Amino acid sequence: MTSPLTIPATPSPAVRWTPRLWGTLLVLCAAMFLDALDVSMVGVALPSIGTDLHLSTSTLQWIVSGYILGYGGLLLLGGRTADLLGRRQVFLVALGVFALASLLGGLVDSGPLLIASRFVKGLSAAFTAPAGLSIITTTFPEGPLRNRALSIYTTCAATGFSMGLVLSGLLTEASWRLTMLLPAPIALGALAAGLRLLPRSAREENHAGYDVPGAVLGTASMLLLVFTVVQAPGAGWASARTLGSFLAVAVLLTAFVLVERRSPSPLIRLGVLRSGSQVRAQLGAVAFFGSYVGFQFLTTLYMQSLLGWSALHTALAFLPAGALVAVSSTKVGAVVDRFGTPRLIAAGFALMVAGYALFLRIDLDPVYAAVILPSMLLIGAACALVFPSLNIQATNGVEDHEQGMVSGLLNTSVQVGGAVFLAVVTAVVTAAAPAHPTAHAVLDSYRPGFMVVTGVAVAGLLITLTGLRDRRPRPSVVVARSTVEASASASTEAEAEAERVAVRD
């Protein structure tokens, strides 16, 4: 595909927001909405699932961890597969698998089968997420159009995450199976619409062959890393099992890097990471999602275990943050166009740090409007600024044939950040757990976890601040390559004529 050479100042007739273009975006947004919805809905339903299927706490953990394992472990492979085999094809097949796994998860009567369905759903999401993001970045030209599309796309993720909490609280009152079945009809509807609306994408011409060793090593290292982090709080961070697993991850990653440096068609082209803005986007994604997942985990425990709030009450407490993100969806793209991604990411992390710091004021009898609500609004504003900006920054300046690769890398950073820092926060809170668990003592054990969450957000802010020295390029009009060549040729002829005139004079 041929990309525009410069960022457009105004939409050209070829890329207006036609009904078909809107339909394409809505299909991709539906898939991202489902990914986020599925992550948040299952948490509230776990107690009911455990009672109905007679599952232990450790088995219930794998209903969540199975999804994370499939999702985080296979994103790199999913992104590159979309580039090589066609984004439309990969997206639609994976979305169909997601729908079938959702149907299976709502009908099974066995813990292992439910965990298997969750793993398959995570696996399919590992292909739909990077394929969907790369379809957007190759359909909408870099600049205001793409920024607007990405702001809507990422807003759907935040909205799905927020609505998942509320819907799960409502549906679980009837049956936990409804929380598993709900994504199936939505996915099937998106699949039917996608078959008609999604643009056909050509496969990348790959004369060098496929990077099978890189795919095996990359997938194995990510799977083992996520598995090790998820298991570490239970097995012990200093246990021989955990340390041995981390050592094996390091060996696999080293081998992966060596293979990628020599492969003619690598799973990840390491040269992409020579870009400072790309590295800051990836590290920012780790800090952003890692801090938020840890915050949500601790806040849910605080509200339900200490304050005695119901699942629905807790979900509604988080709702202002999600509502703020949804309301701002149409505005963020224009703000990015004006101020650039580094400034918005820095501003968002600053708001996030402020929100987390304010939440440290919690006690056993909080006034929601004075203590919890301000934090939720600040964190919602931060999510509205940071998440779309990270996606825009990571995909800007990347060739079309590598958009899937970069999308998979960004989503991997998000998932690994969430898994790693959730495990760290859990370990910190567990280490501070009181011998005599009074309400005040339990609250005091949560505070170090909230401080870790705040520290991760501060690290994200500091990383982002290093990019503020980069000057934001000014928007310019899109010109075709042939126009550039003609202009250059005309300019050369004009200079030559001027020299001939000067010689005659």
TrEMBL record:
InterPro entries: MFS, MFS_dom, MFS_trans_sf, Sugar_transporter_CS. It is found in: Cell membrane. Residues 24-472 form the Major facilitator superfamily (MFS) profile domain. GO terms for cellular component: plasma membrane. Its main location: membrane. It is a multi-pass membrane protein. The chain crosses the membrane at residues 21-47, 59-78, 90-108, 120-140, 152-172, 178-198, 210-230, 242-260, 281-303, 309-332, 344-362, 368-387, 408-429, 449-468. GO terms for molecular function: transmembrane transporter activity. One of its GO terms (biological process) is response to antibiotic. Keywords: Antibiotic resistance, Cell membrane, Membrane, Transmembrane, Transmembrane helix, Transport. PANTHER family: BLR6921 PROTEIN (PTHR42718:SF46), MAJOR FACILITATOR SUPERFAMILY MULTIDRUG TRANSPORTER MFSC (PTHR42718). This is Transmembrane efflux protein.
